[in-house]
Amino acid sequence: MMWAGVLVACASCYALKLAGVSLPARVLADARVQRTVPLVPVGLLAALVATQTFSTGHHLVVDVRTTALVVALGMVLLRAPFLVVVASAAATAALLRLL
Amino acid sequence: MASTQDLIQARRGIIRDALGIGIATGAYALSFGAISTAAGLSLLQTCALSVLMFTGASQFALVGVVGSGGSVWAGAATAALLGSRNALYGVRLSSLLDGGWWKRAAAAHFVIDETTAMAIARDTASESRLAFWATGLAVFTLWNLGTLIGALATHALPDPKVLGFDAAPPAAFLALLAPRLRAREPMAIALGAGVVALVTLPFVPAGVPLLIVAVLVALFGVLRTGR
Questions:
Q1: How many CB atoms lie within 10 A of CB A60?
Q2: How far is it, in rounded angstroms, from Cα A49 to Cα B169?
Q3: Alpha-carbon span B11 to B207, nearest angstrom
Q4: B58 and A CB contact within 8 Å
Q5: Which value does ipTM take for this structure?
Q6: Are B221 and A58 within 8 A, CB to CB?
Q7: pLDDT tens digits, residue range B179-197?
Q8: A46, B114, B193, B198: least surrounded by Cβ within 10 Å?
């Protein structure tokens, strides 16, 4: 099941890339498409941040991941490289669990 | 009229920048390999995502949803929705890409944030093409190498949760989100999306809050256009 999902997702992402370079420009030049498509990642990424920080299964929780996210936000504001942002969040959670 | 010397300088600069971007994304791929492995995907599945999907935010989304208990299908749908922006990049790059259908089909795989940013805003079409292919090859090579190393290193660990790996995906999504929040509207959409996702989460299957958010954002975008 995992493989099927992985391969379908890969095929979908490639199909979207291929559509972009193949379809006549006017299809995707529509003002609604141009305006809406860049907004979708903003909503999805924000929803991913929220759900992966504040939930376990179907329960809303506040745990060490909240502190880790605050540390990550600080790193983002300091313009730290991607790997530093991610590693500092993981390290924060690991340290807080040790205490 | 630019001299030959200037043209060579420009091309060298493009290749140097492409390598720099490749190295940066390779480091970022280490965290993808690690997060994917900690989420329960096999080494082969993790590497397949980097070779075949080859678009970072979508890959992180799929393994993030799976890692938090969602179905792989909810993860796949989220990955595809995040990948929709690559279609718009393709439109901008289409006129620059020459050659037959097979070359276009190969080029399509490389249509991602990094190659688009490097290819547009060049002085000539030939510089754009060089920037696109050099960045694509550098990022593809180092992205896959980084994924493999990150996954292998994580396989060797006993319990990923002790090392705080469950706190890594939200930080990764935050780092991907931040550059898109340079105006008031995306900031408001991000806040609204977070609230909607958390409010719906207790009542629907895992991963579905993301799809609800995507539908609402799309409706918002379409309804606001033309006012």
A1: 13
A2: 8
A3: 45
A4: yes
A5: 0.92
A6: no
A7: 999 899 999 999 999 999 9
A8: B198
